[in-house]
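Thread: Newbie trying to understand structure tokens

Hi all, I'm a second-year student working on a class project, and my supervisor (Dr. K.) asked me to get a predicted structure for one chain before our next meeting. I've only ever worked with sequences, so writing a 3D structure as a token string is new to me. If someone could post the tokens and maybe explain what I'm looking at, I'd be very grateful. Here's the chain:
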Amino acid sequence: MKPTGGVSMNKIELVNLTCVRGGIELFTNLSACVEAGQVMRLTGPNGCGKSSLLKIITGRLEASQGTVHHNGKPLNCQDVMFLDHKPVVKSVLSVQENLEFWARLYDTKSKLPLAYKAFGLEPLLYTNAGMLSSGQKKRVQLALLLLKSAKLWLLDEPLLSLDSKYVDRLGEIIQSHVGAGGMVIYASHEPVPNISETILDVSAYVNRQRHDLAHAA
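---
Reply by user tm_fold:
Sure, no problem. This is what the structure looks like when written as tokens:
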């Protein structure tokens, strides 16, 4: 959504980010911008820093240099929903108990029926989460997208373990989110279907000297 004058009302700016982990520089001088209503997919080979970049945006990992801004100010974690590549569910709780925990935290218990329905969780509500398949755990995790009101969604490998039905469902939910002025940045080798997106190849920001040495070895 844009006001008159063409200036975005809502945008995330990544400015000259450099990431060093374990003494290894993953990427350097990475800059990008995502505006309201846009989706950006992070691509590149495993180990190039896609997950690290998502964590830098959330504030869970500190950049070696550079900044992340939301409308020119530091990003407020309350405006962000971050889902890691590995679903976090409490194995000793049922599916319903897991989601009710997060709904209480976000004060959104009224949204639970929608979250259950969107990802086909009704038949699993009383199932112990430790008994779920990897795909079912992923659907429980993705249901959190419908429980927290956040402008920016950061998703690490959101398609992992999903069957085609719920891959399509995720595409519908992302489309609805950005249609309402939200933003999505996600890391994946494959695109979410039926959405318009820009692509940021994180490996394009690898230190050139390290890149040449790796290929010479």
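A couple of things are worth pointing out once you decode it. The CA atoms of residues 81 and 145 lie 7 Å apart. Confidence is low (pLDDT under 50) at residues 1-8, 209-217. Feel free to ask follow-ups in this thread.
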